[in-house]
């Protein structure tokens, strides 16, 4: 059986080589395509090796027809002629046809042969001469010397007569090719667009570890543990529910309320109103939101709600986005609800830095101190938020460590904005906007002072807090706080001026943000590969060990599925010389990657009783997996 399979591989290889040889030998019997298209070939006397005699060609075509149909040639469906100069435009400067945009956005090629063959798969014991897997045969053709047929006439299509199968080796790496057009195609040197090879894998992004290969652990292959743990905790918090809760079952379209703060307190920040925050799920779109309830608020003027609506349009990475505002009696009283985006497991800046909790602990030592770069990062983020808010004709008004959320490492967002616009709506007698905006700058200074000195009452004890602050931070930071704090005295101070003053720090923060972005992107690229392999493993497990098809010849141990089962053993159930299980994740990943790529590498699969032995290539295994999976789909109905 193994020999049959081996011969089969040899035969198909030979079959794949022969069209190339024949194509070259028979050039003089093949009608030149320039003659077909233009009636004449301008290279006829300049060495074009093809036939320019229509009659001769016609008389001979009958005889060679059957052959040409068998081999792959210019009439093969996937061939697209290259009109092109390398940049994709023809010499006239007009856009070239190339692959049409429609074709370029087409789904990746899926060989029909596999699907149609799968239902009547033949057991390998009967000399199963399965045609070689279709991907390489049908689709991937490039002209061998496309560059030789340089264009001299803008109306003439260069015709390249020699074709050979696309060899993945020397082809340009699609991931490095800057001419990539869309996600699925890239422009090769020859002007052809070829589908990206989805199975290719290369670690992208920076790699800073100095570990030797033997020191690398399996964790190197996956998203870092702490990041995964953080994300998992956030997901768990998002999905958390409160069974038997006394809370209303829903508020408008929001249900499954879970309180996010537990201590009842009336905050001076919201004009003496008590505020509560709940996590809730929207029945409209299934997303999770934070609902801030202002208890006992009675709406006396419709315009008040409208004044808060402007916040719905305010988008800044450092502001918690307002989604909806309404009043509701679901809690048995009249309450105002401000719905915002939900940031799982976030804490307030006051909670995060234990501001005002010094009664529990000794006065801040330099060890507890918030590092200066972190403070600068906060300053840059708050400045960015205020710039957007002020230029939208609004003022934050609520700017306090107890209302700024820490949503990630050194990532903060202003929260509670817009609430005062509604509950302190004053109509015509409102405080001028410019004054509110200057107050924002003063509050900004107090936030930084509070965080830096660890005191909650920096506003009432400015001098004392400043003294502590000076002990830990450099003059540049001290001056920044003083500049902001004096905004009330100097009517000209604006957030725009402030932003120009801290431009150096903004560059530093921007650079750090780009580094974070790069790191996360690089982590993401690893997970993309994992997702691919998980899908492949799922396919393998769908196929293997199906007792319900035990007596079905197509699924029997003698059939094609048999070597897939042995492959499963080869990947996962290897034992060493002492019959101890080999647990080698590297081996599993390598095998699965090769399977996904369908490489020509052959492996030896031996049955557990050591009575059967197969020599089979990954290419054939891949074909077997696809065929079995498609068969399974047909039997099981649509994929869920
Ligand atoms: N959008 C949100 N997403 C996730 N959690 C939030 C959100 N808004 C608030 N929280 C959480 O809800 C809790 C209460 O928030 P709140 O703004 O009421 O702060 P607080 O410390 O209770 O302030 P106060 O003393 O003024 O009531 C905080 O722990 C905060 O992290």
UniProtKB/TrEMBL annotation:
C3H1-type domain location, by residue?
A: 26-55
Q: Which domain of life is it from?
A: Eukaryota
Query: What is an example of a Pfam family matching this protein?
Result: zf-CCCH_PAN3
Record: residues binding ATP: 292, 341-348, 402-403
Recorded GO molecular functions are: ATP binding; poly(A) binding; protein kinase activity; zinc ion binding
List each coiled-coil range. 504-542
Compartments reported by the entry: Cytoplasm
Q: Which UniProt keywords apply?
A: ATP-binding, Coiled coil, Cytoplasm, Metal-binding, mRNA processing, Nucleotide-binding, Zinc, Zinc-finger
| A GO cellular component annotation in the UniProt record | P-body
Which segments does the record annotate as C3H1-type zinc fingers? Answer: 26-55
HAMAP family membership: PAN3
Q: Which PANTHER family match?
A: DEADENYLATION COMPLEX SUBUNIT PAN3 (PTHR12272), PAN2-PAN3 DEADENYLATION COMPLEX SUBUNIT PAN3 (PTHR12272:SF11)
Quaternary structure annotation from Swiss-Prot or TrEMBL: Homodimer. Forms a heterotrimer with a catalytic subunit PAN2 to form the poly(A)-nuclease (PAN) deadenylation complex. Interacts (via PAM-2 motif) with poly(A)-binding protein PAB1 (via PABC domain), conferring substrate specificity of the enzyme complex.
Write the protein's name: PAN2-PAN3 deadenylation complex subunit PAN3
Q: Which organism is it from?
A: Capronia coronata CBS 617.96
């Amino acid at each position: 059986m193994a020999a049959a399979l081996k011969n089969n591989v040899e035969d198909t290889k030979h079959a794949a080589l022969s069209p190339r040889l024949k194509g070259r030998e028979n050039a003089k019997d093949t009608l030149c395509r320039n003659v077909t298209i233009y009636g004449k070939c301008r290279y006829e006397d300049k060495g074009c090796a093809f036939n320019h005699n229509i009659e001769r060609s016609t008389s001979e075509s009958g005889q060679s027809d059957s052959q040409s149909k068998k081999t792959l040639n210019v009439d093969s469906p996937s061939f697209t002629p290259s009109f092109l100069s390398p940049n994709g435009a023809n010499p006239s400067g007009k856009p070239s046809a190339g692959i049409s945009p429609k074709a370029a956005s087409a789904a990746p090629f899926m060989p029909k042969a596999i699907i149609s063959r799968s239902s009547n798969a033949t057991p390998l014991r009967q000399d199963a001469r399965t045609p070689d897997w279709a991907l390489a045969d049908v689709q991937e053709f490039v002209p061998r010397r496309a560059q030789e047929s340089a264009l001299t006439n803008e109306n003439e299509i260069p015709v390249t007569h020699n074709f050979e199968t696309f060899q993945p080796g020397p082809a340009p790496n699609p991931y490095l090719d800057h001419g990539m057009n869309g996600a699925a195609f890239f422009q090769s040197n020859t002007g052809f667009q070829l589908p990206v090879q989805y199975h290719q894998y290369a670690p992208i992004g920076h790699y800073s570890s100095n570990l030797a290969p033997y020191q690398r652990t399996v964790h190197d292959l996956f998203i870092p543990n702490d990041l995964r743990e953080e994300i998992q905790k956030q997901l768990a918090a998002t999905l958390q529910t409160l069974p038997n809760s006394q809370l209303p079952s829903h508020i408008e379209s929001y249900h499954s309320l879970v309180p996010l703060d537990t201590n009842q307190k009336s905050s001076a920040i919201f004009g003496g109103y008590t505020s509560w925050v709940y996590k809730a799920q929207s029945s409209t779109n299934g997303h999770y939101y934070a609902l801030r309830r202002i208890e006992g608020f009675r709406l006396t003027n419709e315009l008040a709600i409208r004044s808060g609506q402007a916040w719905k349009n305010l988008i800044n990475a450092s502001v918690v986005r307002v989604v909806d505002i309404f009043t509701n009696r679901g809690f048995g009283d009249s309450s105002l609800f401000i719905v915002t985006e939900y940031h799982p497991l976030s804490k307030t800046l006051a909670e995060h830095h234990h501001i005002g909790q010094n009664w529990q602990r000794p006065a801040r030592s330099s060890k507890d101190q918030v590092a200066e770069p972190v403070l600068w990062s906060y300053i840059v983020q708050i400045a960015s938020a205020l710039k957007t808010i002020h230029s939208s004709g609004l003022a934050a008004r609520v700017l306090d460590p107890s209302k700024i959320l820490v949503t990630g490492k050194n990532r903060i967002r202003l929260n509670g904005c817009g609430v005062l616009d509604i509950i302190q709506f004053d109509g015509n007698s409102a405080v001028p906007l410019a004054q509110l905006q200057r107050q924002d700058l003063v509050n900004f200074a107090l936030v930084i002072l509070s965080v830096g000195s660890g005191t909650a009452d920096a506003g009432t004890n400015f001098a004392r807090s400043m003294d502590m602050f000076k002990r830990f931070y450099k003059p540049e930071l001290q001056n920044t706080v003083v500049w902001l704090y004096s905004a009330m005295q100097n009517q000209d101070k604006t957030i725009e001026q402030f932003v120009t003053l801290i431009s150096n720090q903004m560059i530093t923060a921007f650079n750090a943000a780009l580094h974070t972005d790069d790191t996360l992107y690089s982590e993401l690229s690893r997970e993309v590969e994992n997702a691919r392999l998980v899908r492949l493993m799922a396919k393998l497990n769908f196929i293997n060990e199906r007792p319900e098809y035990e007596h079905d010849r197509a699924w029997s141990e003698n059939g094609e599925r048999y070597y897939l089962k042995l492959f499963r053993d080869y990947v996962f159930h290897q034992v060493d010389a002492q019959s101890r299980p080999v647990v080698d994740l590297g081996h599993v990943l390598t095998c699965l990657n090769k399977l996904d790529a369908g490489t020509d590498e052959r492996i030896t699969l031996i049955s557990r009783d050591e009575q059967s032995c197969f020599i089979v290539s990954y290419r054939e295994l891949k074909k077997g997996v696809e065929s079995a999976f498609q068969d399974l789909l047909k039997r099981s109905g649509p994929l869920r």
